[in-house]
Write a structure and sequence with these properties.
alpha/beta, Rossmann fold, four-stranded parallel β-sheet
């Protein structure tokens, strides 16, 4: 009887992090470090990580984290290069990630930093770090604090660069005139 009255221990949620060897920054390390700072890390949720060669491999790795490892959400991190073919491949990789989301009915946050987003290596490293961390935090919020996302809706929040900020209703009225 006493055992039946005890609450069943719920399984810890799982946040998957998949990164690539091709990226010029340890995006997975930044995402994992951010998740370790979130409340409940190691108790209410755990992180499961994988690394793949390049961003075209992210979709299958993310799908496997969901289907084989039981992840509730995945953060998929990669760096497309600056050549036109890299941009085309990034588009195709993004489509693969979207398909994996649809096939698994599970969110996969695509986190790409294009090599040509900044010419200054210090700025580019900051973009890598901030975008990886902010999307990892978004994954946490999606699972545990969705109101955090709702509070930021329409605010022009950016990951990696300064926030763009919201538009005021007067700005949209002036643009229509």
């Amino acid at each position: 009887m006493a055992e039946k009255s005890k609450k069943k221990k719920q399984r810890a949620k799982k946040i998957g992090v998949v990164d690539t060897m091709f990226a010029r920054f340890d995006m997975g390390g930044a995402a994992r470090a951010e998740l370790q700072e979130c409340p409940g890390h190691g108790e209410t949720f755990v992180t499961i990580s994988r690394t793949v060669p390049g961003f075209k491999d992210l979709a299958v790795a993310a799908k496997n984290l969901i289907e084989k490892d039981g992840c509730d959400i995945v953060v998929a991190l990669g760096m497309p290069g600056s050549a036109p073919i890299d941009k085309q491949c990034a588009h195709e990789a993004a489509q693969g990630i979207m398909l994996a989301q649809l096939l698994t009915s599970t969110p996969i946050l695509e986190v790409f930093v294009h090599e040509d987003e900044a010419s200054d290596p210090v700025v580019l490293a900051s973009v890598f770090d901030q975008r990886s961390r902010k999307h990892a935090r978004n994954a946490y919020w999606m699972l545990f604090e969705p109101e955090q996302l709702s509070r930021r809706a329409g605010q022009g929040v950016r990951q990696g660069f300064e926030d763009a900020g919201p538009l005021s209703p007067s700005a949209t009225t002036a643009a229509a005139e």
